[in-house]
Amino acid sequence: MTQSVDISIDTLAQELATIQQTGSKRIALLGSRHVPITHQILIEMMSYALVLSGNRLITSGATGTNSAAIRGAMRADPNMLTVILPQSLDRQPRESREQLSNVMHLVENHNNNHLSLAEASAICNREIVSRCQQLICFAFHDSHTLLETCRDAEEQRRVVTLFYFD
After folding, report:
1. For 67-76, how does the pLDDT look when each residue is reduced to its tens digit (9 = 90+)?
2. Which of 65, 86, 112, 138 has the most CB atoms lying inside 10 A of its own CB?
């Protein structure tokens, strides 16, 4: 992701205000399913620290990055976590369902069950971005859905922090 050089003063002021905000923020944390365990531990620690700092965390229910974010947030304060699923809970992988059954604020998207997972995930990510002030994303350079989500978030003037695994 590259930023244009002709960023307006208003945009810079808005981003600076979001970064410096001392109260709680709504932070979306999304990323790839294919994440080494060492990276998952770092993501879990990050989400734990974000929630302990008073932030609300929003993510989805996939394995990998999102699962690590859920673990960290649940350890810190389960009430500060919202998980939005691309489809209904019964369409999620078996290994995710047990973790998701403990999430207090779980949003299922039954209306997307007829879509492919990629299509449903893109819709879900747009919903997540619409609810956050800041997006933290972990992706590979070929993670098309996640990179599109970052572009959408930038267009909506969200602060976007993108980490690449490769």
Report:
1. 999 999 999 9
2. 65
Task: Tell me how many domains the chain contains.
Answer: 1
Q: pLDDT tens-digit profile of 131-144?
A: 999 999 999 999 99
Contact between 49 and 75 (Cβ < 8 Å): no
Is 76:52 a contact under the CB 8 Å cutoff? Answer: yes
Is position 32 within any domain?
yes
Cα(32)–Cα(138) distance, integer angstroms: 6
101 domain-assigned: yes
Other C-beta atoms closer than 10 Å to the C-beta of 18 total: 14
- For residue 127, give its domain range: 24-164
Q: Is residue 155 part of a domain?
A: yes
Q: What is the mean pLDDT of the chain?
A: 90
Amino acid found at 99: Q
| Domain assignment present for 7 | no
**CATH at residue 154:** 3.40.50.450
DSSP H or E stretch at residue 105 = strand 105-107
CB atoms within 10 A of CB 137: 24
pTM value is 0.86
